[in-house]
TrEMBL record, chain A:
Species of the source: Salipaludibacillus aurantiacus
Lineage, broadest ranks: Bacteria, Bacillati, Bacillota, Bacilli, Bacillales
Similarity field: Belongs to the iron-sulfur dependent L-serine dehydratase family.
Pathway: Carbohydrate biosynthesis; gluconeogenesis
Domain Serine dehydratase-like alpha subunit: 15-275
Keywords: 4Fe-4S, Gluconeogenesis, Iron, Iron-sulfur, Lyase, Metal-binding
Protein name per its UniProtKB record: L-serine dehydratase
TrEMBL record, chain B:
GO MF: 4 iron, 4 sulfur cluster binding; L-serine ammonia-lyase activity; metal ion binding
Pathway assigned in UniProt: Carbohydrate biosynthesis; gluconeogenesis
Family per similarity comment: Belongs to the iron-sulfur dependent L-serine dehydratase family.
The species this protein was found in: Salipaludibacillus aurantiacus
A single GO BP: gluconeogenesis
Record-annotated ACT domain positions: 148-220
Stated name of the protein: L-serine deaminase
InterPro entries referenced in this protein's UniProt entry, alphabetically: ACT-like_dom_sf, ACT_dom, ASB_dom_sf, Fe-S_L-Ser, Fe-S_L-Ser_bsu, Ser_deHydtase_bsu
PROSITE patterns: ACT (PS51671)
Domain of life: Bacteria
Catalytic reaction annotation: L-serine = pyruvate + NH4(+)
Length: 293, 220
């Protein structure tokens, strides 16, 4: 099994295979399953993601608390009717990322990538880039294996849990995973995927997990929005040949150490950051009643 | 390496909103249910750390109850689990604990039916992945990723060998095994993760072995 990004990239280079293929082969070997089984399981995950995206951009989704819902749809409609400033591809990714997280907050069915709170970034970017690159269904499934490969390294060497490492571990990881996957889909090299991951994650370091009222809503939905835009920019930087001065594995390690030193009030306890602002506290009281802990 | 599959990262397919606080909680509840082997009459959930602080917002309570009713992470009955519990006559209660444990997302589940009781401690380590840390006071490490059998037995020589010999007889490969006891010569627990599901016949034969008191299994 590859233990870090460098080993993953070296495996790709020695065997002259894309990252997605290395991930599939490892899964076959470790779990003694066939290519078809693994591929079709991932394809079912893709179907779940597609349904969540479509639901979020077309239906008026609303969470139980009423804090979130409908913004993915709103942005999607804005794009159709207006000349946008930041461009349609980025905003398409953003709207689809938000749509997924809004469906999640409404207790709808999603696929965790790598977590539910960060579930928007990977499908959001995938279904936006799809419009530009017209990939085959197989390439779309492979996008998820590339994302999974990088997430696998982060989960084993750092963390993908907001309670353990803050939002950098969740939306940060998802952003890096998506950036790397976009690069492979766009025809970049495995090493460029690693560069994209490094640059995307660097920009997310230190991000705290401070959910208002402890709900996976504010600021999670919009953090996924910005994660999606970051992933696209990082992919373009890597495809342009720009490199991270700090290697990807060291960025992941830095993320881990930052998480370790983060106070618990900023690790998914709903006690610090935005959750502790006057408005954040007021929302909590409105939702759970005054005097709620 | 804690995560061994790409589907730990891209997955699980689940009802929102949180992989650690909803899907993970449901999975711990589901493992408890599988080990208890029947519908409990009552359940008590002791929540620690982030679980204690944010369980209502994340639907951790709903998911834990769904889990002990046997619902998996993607089961859409999950959101209505309290109602299902009521219909089935399963009572439940939640306790917010102050103690700081090693892991921020820890839950102790106690289940009961008639005279039978069980206690389990589980942690949700992120992305929907869970580990079972304690069962009826025995420390153990169970990932829930593989089928596993749990054997409660008297702490006597030869018992471990007889159980593993029985598994070998049926060509069942052991992936991971742990043995723990509370006191020398008293009750002990074997946790054996295996590569394939174990059928009822094998289970029955293991339960008849000398010094073996109880055998339960959990599957994928």
């Amino acid at each position: 099994m590859f233990r870090n990004v460098e080993e993953l990239v070296e495996l790709c280079e020695t065997k002259n295979l894309p990252i997605s293929e290395i991930m599939i082969r490892q899964e076959m070997e470790v779990h003694e399953r066939s290519y078809e089984e693994i591929f079709s399981q991932m394809e079912r995950n893709l179907d779940v993601m597609e349904r969540a995206v479509n639901r979020g951009i077309t239906e008026q989704v609303k969470s139980v608390s009423g804090l979130t819902g409908g913004d993915g749809k709103k942005l999607n409609e804005y794009m159709q009717l207006n000349e946008t400033l930041s461009g349609n591809l980025i905003l398409d990714a953003v709207s689809k990322a938000m749509a997924t997280n809004e469906v999640n907050a409404a207790m709808g069915t999603i696929c965790a990538t790598p977590t539910a709170g960060a579930a928007g970034v990977v499908p959001g970017t995938l279904f936006a880039v799809k419009e530009k690159l017209n990939p085959s269904r197989e390439q779309m499934v492979r996008y998820l294996f590339v994302s999974g490969a990088f997430g696998f390294v982060v989960a084993n060497n750092a963390s993908i849990s907001g309670a353990a490492g803050g939002c950098q571990a969740e939306v940060g990881s998802a952003t890096g995973m998506a950036a790397a996957a976009i690069v492979e889909m766009a025809g970049g090299t495995p090493r460029q995927s690693a560069q994209a991951m490094a640059m995307a994650l660097k920009n997310m370091l230190g991000l705290v997990c401070d959910p208002v009222a402890g709900l996976v809503e504010v600021p999670c939905v919009k953090r996924n929005a910005f994660g999606a835009s970051n992933a696209l920019v990082a992919a373009d930087l890597a495809l342009a040949g720009i490199e991270s001065r700090i290697p990807c594995d060291e960025v992941i390690d830095a993320m881990y150490r930052i998480g370790e030193t983060m106070p618990s009030t900023l690790r998914e306890t709903g006690e610090g950051g935005l959750a502790a602002t006057p408005t954040g506290v007021r929302y909590k009281e409105q939702i759970f009643g005054t005097g709620s802990k | 390496m804690k995560y061994r599959s790409v589907f730990d990262i891209i997955g699980p397919v689940m009802v929102g909103p949180s992989s650690s606080h909803t899907a993970g909680a449901a999975r711990i509840g589901l493992v408890a249910r599988q080990l208890f082997q029947k519908e409990p009459e009552w359940a008590a959930f002791h929540l620690y750390g982030s679980f204690a602080k944010t369980y209502q917002g994340h639907g951790t309570d709903v998911a834990l109850v769904g889990g002990i009713l046997g619902f998996d992470t993607f089961d859409t009955r999950m959101t209505e689990s309290f109602k299902y519990a009521e219909d089935k006559g399963v009572s439940y209660s939640f306790y917010e604990e102050e103690a700081n444990l090693d892991h921020p997302n820890t839950v102790k589940i106690r289940l009961g039916a008639g005279k039978e009781e069980m206690e389990l401690v589980g942690i949700s380590i992120g992305g929907g992945k869970v580990e079972i840390k304690e069962l009826n006071g025995f420390e153990l490490r169970l990932s829930g990723n593989h089928p596993a059998i749990l054997v409660v037995h008297d702490d006597r020589y030869g018992t471990i060998a007889s159980v593993s010999t029985k598994l070998a007889e049926y060509e069942i490969n052991i992936g991971h095994m742990e043995v723990s006891r509370k006191e020398q010569g008293k009750e002990a627990l074997m946790v054996i993760e295996v590569d394939q599901n174990i059928d009822e016949k094998t289970m029955a034969e293991i339960s008849k072995l000398e010094h073996v008191k109880k055998v339960t299994k959990i599957h994928d």
